[in-house]
Amino acid sequence: MLLKQLQIKDFRNLNKTQLTPINGVNLIVGDNASGKTSILEAIYYLSHIRSFRSQYVTDLISRQSSYLQLVASIETRDNSTIPIGIRRARNKSEIRVDKKPVRRVSDIAALFPVLAIHPDSYKLITGSPSQRRQFIDWGVFHVEHGFFQAWQRFKKALSQRNAALKSKQKNDVCQLWNNEICTASNHIDQLRSQYFDNLSPYLNDLIQQFFPDDNISIEYKRGWPREVELSELLDRNLQKERLKGYTYYGPHRADISLKVNNQSAQTCISRGQQKTLVALMRLAQAMHFSQIKNKSCVLLYDDLAAELDAAHKSMILSVLSSMDIQLFLTTIEEDQISLSDWSDSRLFHVEHGDITCKT
Ligand SMILES: Nc1ncnc2c1ncn2[C@@H]1O[C@H](COP(=O)(O)OP(=O)(O)OP(=O)(O)O)[C@@H](O)[C@H]1O
Ligand SMILES: [Mg+2]
After folding, report:
1. Is 40 in the pocket of ligand 1 (CB under 6 A)?
2. What is the pLDDT of residue 340?
3. How far is the CA of 287 from the centre of ligand 1 (A)?
4. What is the pLDDT of residues 141-188, one digit of tens each?
5. Is the Cβ atom of 300 under 6 angstroms away from ligand 1?
6. Alpha-carbon distances, residue 19 vs 4, 27, 48, 255 (angstroms)
7. Which helix (H) or strand (E) holds 108?
8. Which ligand lies nearest to the CA atom of residue 68 in the structure?
9. CA-CA distances (angstroms) from residue 194 to 55, 78, 294, 357?
């Protein structure tokens, strides 16, 4: 998958501009507040229909407009081109893929897989478990079959059970959805765990290179203890759950445990190490994706130079240059990023929300 062209209208300070990237590295250079992160955010938005910086669409729509608009051409593996159009007003959204309206975000996400590494990415380690679930689920969604359907089934059954618990329905009413929850949960766990096992060699390889002296363990936690069946926990905890009004155990509580030398990575490694570790997790995902799917994804790396010391920066650049991906990098100073390892590169300058191609 390749972003061939993107026209941006009223997305943050990008009022009317466009870019034609290449399949290789695209370096976006500009001063503070010129619009570099906003460009990456717009590309991310095309795939996720949300931002990596803000959960409010009003933050994204240019202050002088009532809607934002993105029009893109995506090249698929068989070299055909698919147009994508998004128009988003404060309370109205229109998405078109190949000129046809699309309602589900998953349809567009499947077509155009995008990963991002940005200055807040370390929150994948320090933030809530939901961020780590999103990390796994990006991969499970793109790589394993049936995940989206299993997750939809689970979500529906869980919300019905929770509603029954909250409204203090009789025990047998609360337990009506247990079978459905257990079947979907076991399926979700099996897919997540399979994905995690397949991703691990890529991640461990990178960790060996970047943290040769540390013992780093990354473990998937399914959301209920390994040694117990979920059905048993649903039965056993019913009274407690009726008091709380929600289902305690299940794949909605899954997490990843990250330990460095047996201590929690959340509290015991430096911010720089957290940023490096998260970058490696994303790079591993991108590598695994291209191997398994035999097609590449798009990787956005915001402010790479500002994030890492010289040695780690050049190590990351060397890993990036060996990957078969379309890459977007941003930097304030052009000479901070050496593109000598790439055969194909394109340079863009951004100034006051206006993009110009320099090569
Ligand atoms: N909704 C909006 N409408 C108009 N302008 C906005 C909106 N949201 C943010 N901006 C402005 O867009 C500009 C570009 O922001 P952006 O974060 O993309 O800059 P940047 O080039 O990444 O800067 P830095 O080097 O500091 O990271 C900023 O001046 C910001 O205030
Ligand atoms: Mg920025």
Report:
1. no
2. 86
3. 31
4. 999 989 999 999 999 999 999 999 999 999 999 899 999 999 999 999
5. no
6. 9, 12, 19, 38
7. helix 105-111
8. 1
9. 30, 28, 18, 42
Average pLDDT of the residues of the chain = 95
pLDDT digits (tens, 9 = 90+) for 278-310: 999 999 999 999 999 888 899 999 999 887 899
CATH code of 129-272, in short, is 1.20.1050.90
* Mutate which of 8, 11, 13 for ligand 1 pocket (most atoms within 8 A of beta carbon): 13
8-state DSSP, 300: E
Q: Which residue has the tokens 């100034």?
A: 351
pTM over 0.70: yes
30 lines ligand 1 (CB under 6 A): yes
Hey, which bits of the chain come out as E strands? 2-11, 14-19, 25-30, 67-75, 81-89, 92-97, 100-101, 114-117, 216-221, 255-260, 263-264, 298-301, 326-331, 345-351, 354-357
- Which ligand does the CA of 54 lie closest to? 1
Q: For residues 8 and 14, give the distance between their C-alpha atoms in angstroms, rounded to a whole number.
A: 7
Q: Rounded to whole angstroms, what are the CA distances from 225 to 154, 191, 200, 230, 267?
A: 18, 17, 21, 8, 24
33 lines ligand 1 (CB under 6 A): yes
CATH class of 1-113+297-359: alpha beta
CA–centroid distance for 239 within its chain:
37
Cα–ligand 2 centroid distance for 37 (angstroms): 4
Using a 6 Å cutoff on CB, does residue 13 contact ligand 1? yes
Q: Are 189 and 222 in contact (CB under 8 A)?
A: yes
Identify the residue whose tokens are 């890529």.
202
Ligand 1 pocket test: which of 15, 36, 118 has the largest number of ligand atoms within 8 Å of its C-beta? 36
- Expressed in angstroms and rounded, the spacing between residue 359 Cα and the centre of ligand 2 is 22
Query: Which ligand does the CA of 302 lie closest to?
Result: 2
Locate 36 and state its tokens.
Answer: 């570099």
- CA gyration radius for the chain? 22
User: Which residue's CA lies nearest to atom 9 of ligand 1?
Assistant: 12
Domain ranges of the chain: 1-113+297-359, 129-272
* Dihedral (Cα; 122, 318, 76, 112), 10-degree rounding: 0
